[in-house]
Write a structure and sequence with these properties.
Blueprint (H helix, E strand, L loop, with lengths): L1 E2 L2 E2 L5 E6 L5 E6 L5 E8 L2 H11 L14 H10 L19 E4 L2 E4 H16 L3
Antiparallel strand pairs: 1-2, 3-4, 4-5, 6-7
Length: about 130
């Protein structure tokens, strides 16, 4: 597992997470559960666990449920520091690819692309 050009692994903790497009990610974490790297694109939890077992033999016996509901997870994400949501569409930071904050204004990648498209079309049509 690599993060940029640096090799990550083996790590002391692994976690599974469902990405917003419903694919399952394998999170490679340090002892404080900080994510050091991500492998993924798994269609199912079973597939992600099978992938983890290839690199961490015996890990299958160690998986534990979090007993955390989606609502509890969203509340925990909302408590993290940083810009909380896009100032234009109100999507939360954890539901977008990127969120850029300028002073007290934040814009997500989706709104930034749409804004760029509108500005580009306005420049090519000077009416």
């Amino acid at each position: 597992m690599f993060r940029g050009e640096k090799e990550v692994g083996p790590v002391p903790r692994l976690a599974l997470a469902r990405h917003r497009n419903n694919e399952v990610l394998l999170l490679h974490c340090n002892s404080r559960w900080q994510v050091l790297g991500v492998s993924g694109g798994h269609a199912t939890v079973r597939e992600a666990k099978r992938d983890a077992e290839r690199f961490y033999t015996g890990i299958s016996k160690g998986w534990m449920p979090t007993h955390c509901t989606k609502v509890q997870a969203r509340r925990a994400l909302d408590r993290l520091p940083g810009p909380k949501k896009c100032s234009l569409c109100s999507r939360p930071w954890h539901a977008v690819e990127a969120l850029v904050e300028i002073k007290k204004f934040a814009i997500c990648d989706t709104c930034a692309r749409e804004l760029y498209r509108l500005v580009s079309s306005a420049k090519s049509d000077p009416t």
